[in-house]
Amino acid sequence: MFLGVHFLLPRRLEKADLNLFFYDPRNMGGFAPIGQLLKRAYYVYTGGLLAYFFFIYIPIIFSGVIDSTYEVGTSTTVFFSVAWLMGVVSIGYSMWKVHTLMAGKKERRLKELEDDLRDVIENPYDIRNSTVADEGKRKEIVRQLDHVRGMKEYPTTFTMWSQILISVILPQVLNMTIQIAG
Description:
Blueprint (H helix, E strand, L loop, with lengths): L1 H15 L15 H30 L12 H47 E2 L8 E2 L2 H16 L7 H24 L1
Antiparallel strand pairs: 1-2
Helix pairs in contact: 1-3, 2-3, 2-5, 3-4, 3-5
């Protein structure tokens, strides 16, 4: 399911040729639920990774309390790091893929509106000698341009990026702390 959300979903979104919702109050083109899904799927992955971490390292963490001669081998450490890196690559790929989809659609719509704007202005490249053929239509195009320009190109907020960053860093920080302390 995790691989489907982070690798297949972005590709299917691209193939579906969905339109962006430029009037979205969150300014995410209607893609906020997609961003939430990507974030939550990554949280589940990180939760599994942290559960694995604690399962493997509990005997070491509580070595003063539990009488244990348990040691974690290099292969376990490498596996944990590879699993962590796979998670980082997955969230990076899915966010990048959705970003490029949104940015491309936004850019195409901006180009269309710019072309429309040039059509209602006579001599548009000479600001001193240009005239507006239809002021009402120009105002409508400018209003639409404002909505399109205001839309973010990522399906996430700053808070979501902060949460993702913490969940990206936390497992590896714990792993490195145990390695240094051990």
